């Protein structure tokens, strides 16, 4: 991964790399270090410098049932969104890849939701799933009170889950279709010569060959559901009702900016960061070992 | 036009040495071809001359000036790459003129020279095209034009013809040689194709695993290969080489067969390799007692000549005969003139010179 | 390939049309809701066809959300992020790929590792930095015992504050790096033989060859920046710097139980989602290409 032909002009090399390094330092590493510092210190109530408290903040976080509830909600959210968004995108991509009439239209349309701002997705789904207006309100006409995401935690959870999934289907579709089109045509043709029908080829050949892409999307979708769901929650449920949609990111935000408890927020940030680093490392390990069939 | 001197040049990548101390001298205006199998270090040598690769040890001088520490642009060399390395976003004219633009040559002058070069290499109507709109041969010409326009002291070619189809390759080969004859610029041409090498070279350098096997005119290399390696690499089809044992000062045996060779002062029992060119093995009606008889199992008719393939003394051999001969499969008695036989040391692979020659040289 | 599979073809069409309807339905619902008066939009079941009040509602939402300012800010911010990203990552990737210095790989990993530190997880301290962007350097000076006093550089309520943290991410650098690795070595060597130095090669060869990549990266960064919500929410308290995406939240009552004025809220939603949708519709090719390339 090294170029054979390189230049020796070190001044230019430094000048070109410096801006990004500065930005990365100021906006990534310093804040991260700061978060790590806050996570192990406490600000005294009456001013003065921060005091080192070791793992006290973490202990406080882990002792809080609300925190574990948010972890549980986040994990459920991650699994749910990923299953829905990757699964639906896979089916759509497999069929769109067949190139029947209209496939250009599908290719063009399916990824559009990904361009919609998360806040707009949030409002849209808030309306669609609203209990007294919108698309689903009809249910309550038939069975009054059956559907109310404002009061029922499960309903609210379904709402945000579908919102996030809807957005990610387009993203996953783009990758899966690209991967499908990169599969060697001859392999598919060989399977056809072997007598495998369309659906059979999808299941026996294309899906297994997509494993690397599916794995990659799994990781991206999980990570995205952890961090990118903020806007969605903020314009819809605010973490409610009764903390049913209180995902980790949203809790960090509330603890940090509403309750102004930087130390508690920082400790939670560190845990979330560890989770994401872990996911990234797994992804790289596996990619290194090559789930790839090539 | 400059001469090139290469003195004790070595190249290592990390701990692995790939070029092991080369000493070569190329005369001004000479067309030198560096020939060798893939991976033997040809490109590395060429790129060290160009200044694209640092020299680990030794020195290279161009026109009497040591260039080890000079950048490519300061060496006065132009290079034609195997994949042409044309700038995809520039037109043919821009590609050819880029070096002049970098050098700050005024636009009018630049355009004049681009047009001139374009004419001389037959790219006249194509100057406004992009590389993607050209055929392989045309791209090759652009790469040549880009080299020519700088009026360099040295042309360097790194397998420039190997991406072309067979017909074009021959055609471009001829053009390159004509160009050299017109301009007389020192040229170093790297290839693994021995036909290209034989036809183009004033002088050949045969390289193997980072070492020089032989330097000489194509004629010398063909008729007096300095080693078993050269014998097997040069010529198409290559020389037949069979392992043998000395039975006397001027006889060798292999596979129960006997062959008379010129006096080499061989020691009885010494292990050797016997070589003869396919065209030097002449089928005869009557086998000499213990004389070589090949078992032919395949006949290739190339029109102008016929190749008879088979086994002789435990080795694969090829016999070349004129068109119209009718030897088929089966046993084929051969006659090989002693003067057409080459002997190589079994250990070192080096050529064993006949006594007479050595005496004459002494 | 000749295949007669009428049943599977029917299934294919059913699945794809179904997918199309489900994926477009939310957008359609927004359009319908944005085109009715308040009474109609609150009917149950809601009207299934668009009404006649679209422009009216858009106008009201435009006023209510202060979209004249807000859209302008968003366009400026998204444009700056896209341009900054395209330029900054081009040069940093060039430095990493085309030079051979000892710290090259260290820098590579420093930049690479930022992919594991999303803004959302370091939001609290990043906000603190935004209050004074020179604070990290001040702290370093203080630590090293140097008595240098830097001025404060407050990024809150400024374009720099909205733009810089988004420009800092590593994605673009990888896109370019990936692309540079596919450029044959011989091209740089030919340029060297032609007498071009590092800067010349960058300007004359690398940049023109990167146009496609720039378009792709620019497109996804524009959309990415436009869609930012949390960060603007934090660094902007002054209405003059409010962005479209964050402003959307103010069109509805924040308490989840209360019913918003749905027709104008949906009109606002339509206004906010229109620019990024328009960008990806028009620049579809670049967007898709960028998306796939960034993640390799
Ligand atoms: N950048 C490099 N790093 C390590 N080894 C190299 C490098 N370039 C070439 N080599 C090795 O040096 C040897 C000679 O290469 P080269 O000169 O390209 O051969 P060729 O004669 O085919 O042109 C090969 O074994 C090759 O693997
Ligand atoms: Mg080579």
Automatic annotation (TrEMBL), chain A:
Keyword Cell inner membrane applies: yes
Pfam families: BPD_transp_1 (PF00528)
Keyword Transmembrane belongs to the record: yes
Localization annotation: Cell inner membrane; Cell membrane
Membrane topology field: Multi-pass membrane protein
Keywords from the named record: Cell inner membrane, Cell membrane, Membrane, Transmembrane, Transmembrane helix, Transport
GO process terms (BP): transmembrane transport
InterPro entries, per the entry: MetI-like, MetI-like_sf, UgpAE/MalFG_permease
UniProt GO cellular component terms: plasma membrane
Transmembrane regions: 67-96, 108-129, 156-180, 201-222, 262-284
Residue intervals of the ABC transmembrane type-1 domain: 71-283
SUPFAM superfamilies per record: MetI-like
Role played: Part of the ABC transporter complex UgpBAEC involved in sn-glycerol-3-phosphate (G3P) import. Probably responsible for the translocation of the substrate across the membrane.
Record family assignment: Belongs to the binding-protein-dependent transport system permease family.
Subunit field text: The complex is composed of two ATP-binding proteins (UgpC), two transmembrane proteins (UgpA and UgpE) and a solute-binding protein (UgpB).
Protein name: sn-glycerol-3-phosphate transport system permease protein UgpA
UniProt source species: Lichenibacterium ramalinae
UniProtKB/TrEMBL annotation, chain B:
One Pfam family this sequence matches: OB_MalK
MF (Gene Ontology): ABC-type transporter activity; ATP binding; ATP hydrolysis activity
Keywords for the protein's UniProt record, in alphabetical order: ATP-binding, Cell inner membrane, Cell membrane, Membrane, Nucleotide-binding, Sugar transport, Translocase, Transport
Biological processes annotated in GO: carbohydrate transport; glycerol-3-phosphate transmembrane transport; glycerophosphodiester transmembrane transport
Family: Belongs to the ABC transporter superfamily.
Principal location class: membrane
Subcellular location: Cell inner membrane
Annotated membrane topology: Peripheral membrane protein
Source organism per UniProt: Lichenibacterium ramalinae
Protein name: sn-glycerol-3-phosphate ABC transporter ATP-binding protein UgpC
InterPro entries: AAA+_ATPase (IPR003593), ABC_transporter-like_ATP-bd (IPR003439), ABC_transporter-like_CS (IPR017871), ABC_transpr_MalK-like (IPR015855), ABC_transpr_MalK/UgpC-like (IPR047641), Mo/tungstate-bd_C_term_dom (IPR008995), NA-bd_OB-fold (IPR012340), OB_MalK-like (IPR040582)
A GO CC term attached to the entry: ATP-binding cassette (ABC) transporter complex, substrate-binding subunit-containing
PROSITE patterns: ABC_TRANSPORTER_1 (PS00211), ABC_TRANSPORTER_2 (PS50893)
Membrane-spanning intervals of the chain: none
Domain ABC transporter: 4-234
From TrEMBL, chain C:
GO BP terms, alphabetized: transmembrane transport
Species classification: Bacteria, Pseudomonadati, Pseudomonadota, Alphaproteobacteria, Hyphomicrobiales
Record's keyword terms, sorted: Cell inner membrane, Cell membrane, Membrane, Transmembrane, Transmembrane helix, Transport
Family: Belongs to the binding-protein-dependent transport system permease family.
GO CC term (a single one): plasma membrane
NCBIfam families reported for this sequence: PRK10973.1 (NF008210)
Organism: Lichenibacterium ramalinae
Keyword Transmembrane applies: yes
InterPro entries the record matches: MetI-like, MetI-like_sf
Protein name (database record): sn-glycerol-3-phosphate transport system permease protein UgpE
CDD domains to which the protein is assigned, alphabetical: TM_PBP2 (cd06261)
């Amino acid at each position: 991964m090294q170029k054979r032909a390189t230049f020796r002009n070190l001044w230019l090399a430094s000048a070109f790399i410096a801006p990004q390094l500065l930005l990365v330092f100021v906006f990534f590493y310093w804040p991260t270090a700061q978060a790590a510092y806050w996570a192990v210190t406490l600000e005294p109530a009456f001013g003065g410098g921060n005091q080192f408290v070791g793992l006290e903040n973490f202990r406080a976080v882990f002792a809080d049932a609300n925190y574990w509830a948010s972890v549980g909600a986040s994990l459920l959210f991650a699994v749910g969104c990923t299953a829905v968004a990757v699964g639906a995108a896979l089916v759509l991509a497999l069929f769109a890849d067949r190139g029947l009439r209209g496939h250009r239209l599908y290719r063009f349309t399916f990824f559009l939701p990904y361009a919609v701002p998360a806040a707009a997705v949030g409002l849209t789904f808030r309306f669609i799933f609203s209990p007294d207006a919108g698309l689903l309100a009809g249910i309550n006409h038939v069975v009054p009170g059956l559907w109310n995401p404002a009061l029922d935690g499960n309903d609210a959870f379904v709402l945000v889950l579908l919102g996030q999934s809807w957005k990610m289907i387009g993203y996953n579709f783009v990758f899966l279709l690209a991967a499908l089109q990169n599969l060697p045509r001859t392999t598919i043709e060989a399977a056809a010569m072997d007598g495998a029908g369309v659906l059979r080829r999808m299941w026996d050949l294309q899906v297994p060959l997509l494993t690397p892409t599916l794995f990659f999307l799994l990781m991206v979708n999980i990570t995205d559901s952890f961090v990118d769901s903020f806007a969605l929650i903020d314009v819809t449920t605010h973490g409610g009702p009764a903390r049913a949609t209180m995902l980790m990111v949203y809790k960090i935000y509330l603890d940090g900016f509403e309750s102004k408890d930087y130390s508690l927020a920082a400790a939670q940030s560190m845990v979330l960061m560890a989770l994401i680093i872990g996911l990234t490392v797994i992804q790289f390990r596996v990619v290194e070992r090559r789930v790839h069939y090539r | 036009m400059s001469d090139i001197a290469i003195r004790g040049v070595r190249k290592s990548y990390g701990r692995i040495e790939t070029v092991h101390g080369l000493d070569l001298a190329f005369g001004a205006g000479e067309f030198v071809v560096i020939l060798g199998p893939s991976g033997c270090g040809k490109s590395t040598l060429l790129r060290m001359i160009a200044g694209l690769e640092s020299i680990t040890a030794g020195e290279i001088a161009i026109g009497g000036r040591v260039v080890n520490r000079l950048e490519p642009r300061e060496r006065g060399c132009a290079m034609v790459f195997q994949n042409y390395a044309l700038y995809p976003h520039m037109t043919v004219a821009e590609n050819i003129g880029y070096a002049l633009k970098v050098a700050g040559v005024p636009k009018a002058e630049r355009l004049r020279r681009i047009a001139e070069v374009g004419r001389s290499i037959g790219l006249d109507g194509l100057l406004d095209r992009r590389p993607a709109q050209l055929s392989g041969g045309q791209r090759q010409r652009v790469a040549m034009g880009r080299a020519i326009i700088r009026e360099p002291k040295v042309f360097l070619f790194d397998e420039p013809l190997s991406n072309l189809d067979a017909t074009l390759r021959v055609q471009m080969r001829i053009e390159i040689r004509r160009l050299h004859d017109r301009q007389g610029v020192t040229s170093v041409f790297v290839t693994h194709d021995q036909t290209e090498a034989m036809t183009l070279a004033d002088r050949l350098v045969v390289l193997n695993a980072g070492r020089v096997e032989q330097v000489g005119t194509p004629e010398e290399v063909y008729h007096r290969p300095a080693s078993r390696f050269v014998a097997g690499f040069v010529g198409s089809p290559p020389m037949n080489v069979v392992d043998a044992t000395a039975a006397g000062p001027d006889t060798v045996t292999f596979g129960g067969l006997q062959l008379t060779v010129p006096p080499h002062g061989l020691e009885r029992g010494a292990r050797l390799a016997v070589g003869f060119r396919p065209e030097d093995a002449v089928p005869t009606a009557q086998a000499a007692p213990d004389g070589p008889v090949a078992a032919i199992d395949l006949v290739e008719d190339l029109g102008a000549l016929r190749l008879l393939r088979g086994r002789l003394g435990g080795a694969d051999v090829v016999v070349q005969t004129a068109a119209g001969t009718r030897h088929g499969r089966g046993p084929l008695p051969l006659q090989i003139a002693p003067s057409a036989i080459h002997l190589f040391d079994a250990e070192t692979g080096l050529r064993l010179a006949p006594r007479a020659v050595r005496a004459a040289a002494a | 390939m000749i295949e007669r599979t009428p049943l599977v073809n029917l299934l294919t069409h059913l699945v794809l049309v179904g997918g199309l309807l489900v994926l477009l339905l939310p957008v359609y619902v927004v359009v319908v809701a944005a085109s009715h008066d308040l009474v109609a939009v609150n009917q149950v079941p809601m009207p299934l066809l668009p009404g006649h009040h679209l422009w009216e509602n858009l106008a009201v939402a435009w006023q209510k959300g202060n979209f004249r300012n807000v859209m302008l800010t968003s366009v400026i911010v998204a444009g700056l992020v896209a341009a900054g990203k395209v330029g900054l990552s081009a040069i940093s990737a060039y430095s990493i790929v085309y030079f051979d210095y000892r710290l090259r790989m260290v820098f590579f990993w420093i930049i690479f590792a930022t992919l594991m530190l999303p803004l959302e997880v370091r939001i609290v301290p990043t906000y603190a930095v935004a209050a004074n962007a020179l604070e990290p350097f001040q702290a370093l000076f203080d630590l090293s015992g140097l008595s240098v006093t830097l001025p404060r550089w407050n990024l809150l309520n400024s374009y720099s504050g909205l733009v810089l943290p988004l420009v800092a991410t590593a994605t673009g650098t990888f896109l370019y790096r990936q692309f540079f690795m596919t450029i044959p070595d011989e091209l740089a060597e030919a340029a060297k033989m032609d007498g071009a130095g590092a800067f010349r090669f960058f300007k004359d060869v690398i940049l023109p060859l990167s146009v496609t990549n720039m378009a792709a990266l620019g497109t996804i960064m524009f959309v990415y920046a436009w869609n930012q919500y949390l960060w603007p929410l934090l660094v902007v308290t002054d209405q003059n710097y409010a962005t479209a995406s964050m402003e959307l939240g103010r069109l509805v009552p924040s308490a989840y139980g209360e019913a918003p004025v749905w027709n104008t809220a949906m009109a606002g939603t339509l206004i906010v989602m229109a620019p990024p949708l328009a960008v990806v519709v028009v620049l579809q090719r670049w967007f898709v290409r960028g998306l796939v390339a960034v993640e390799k």
